[in-house]
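**Polypeptide and fold**
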Amino acid sequence: MPAEPRAIALVKLSSLGDVIHALPVADALSAAFPRARLAWLVERREAALLRDHPALDEVIDVDTRAWRSARTPRQALGVLRELTTLRRRLRAGRFDVAIDLQGLVKSGAVARATGAPLRIGFAPGWSRERLSAVFTTRRVTPPPQASHVVDQYLALLEPLGVTMPPGRARFRLPSRAAAESRIDDFFVGVGLKPRHRLVVLNPGAGRGNKRWPVASFRALAERLCHEGDAQVLVLWGPREHEAARAIVEMPAPRPALAPPTDLDELAAVARRASVMVAGDTGPLHLAAARRASASMGRPPRRATARTAPAIASSPPPTARWPRSTCPPSSTPSSR
C-alpha cells in the first residue's frame, strides 16, 4: 500500500442508526487523506442518507435483503447477475484499503470483494460475528477508553495512522431542499414552529424490546401538551400508523400527526426538533446527529453507553421546561 491510499472503501451496510454512528469515519478519512477517493458500500434502503455527503466520492448501494429473499431460479439468476456487476464495479475501483465497520460475515465478504490488499476490521472478540475476521488482514481491538460505538469505529483507522480523541467525532448530514420545503409546508399547515418547544415522539422501532409502550407515549404527550405548553409531533413508519394515531387522539391541545416521511424528510423533521423521545432506533440517532436533544424512551434490556445517542445538546434558551416528572405509567421500563 502507498504511504497515502488512493482509494478507500468503507463497508457499513445497515441499519440507519449504525450508519449514522459511522459518519465520523468518513470525515476523519477525508481530512487525513484529501486526495484519496472515498466510497461507501451500504444497503439500498439506507443509501439516501449518504447521498451528496461532502466527504464521499461514491456511494455504492447493495441489496443483501433481496439477495437473501431470492426463492425462485429466476430470482437467483437476478441475484447472480447483480453480484457479478457489483464485483466488476468494485475491482474497477482499484481500492487500496477496505474497512469493515460492521463485523458481520456478509460485510466481511463485501470488503473482501473489493480486492483491497489492506482490509481492516475488528478483532474476533469485537466482531458481531467472529467469522467476519477471516476476511480482514488487519484486526483492531479498540482501546478501553473507546466506550461508545462511534469511538470504536474510529479506532479502526489506527492502522492508517489516523487518530481522533474520544468525543471529538464530527457528524455531517446533507440537507435536501425539496424535503426541507415539504416539511416547511407541513409545519405551516398544522401550525408548528420549528425548534420552539417542539417535542418529536417516535414510538416505533424495528424490534419489540426497543419499543416503549404506546400508552406511555400517550401519557407523556398528554402531559407535554396540557401541562408543559409544548408542541408535540408524532412520527410513524411502516405498520406504525395506528399506534401513532392512538397517541394523538386526545382532547385539545393535542399532538400533530406527522405525514409519511422518507429519510430526507425525517432528517428535516429532526433538524426542527427541540427534543426527540424514541427507543434505541435510527430516528433518535438522526436527531442526535442533527443536534436536537435526544432521549431514549425505553432502553433495550442490554442497552449500554455503547449505542446511546452520540450527540445531545440542551433545548434553546427560550425553552423553559416544567420540572415535573412523568407519571409512573410513562416512566421508562428498566426491564
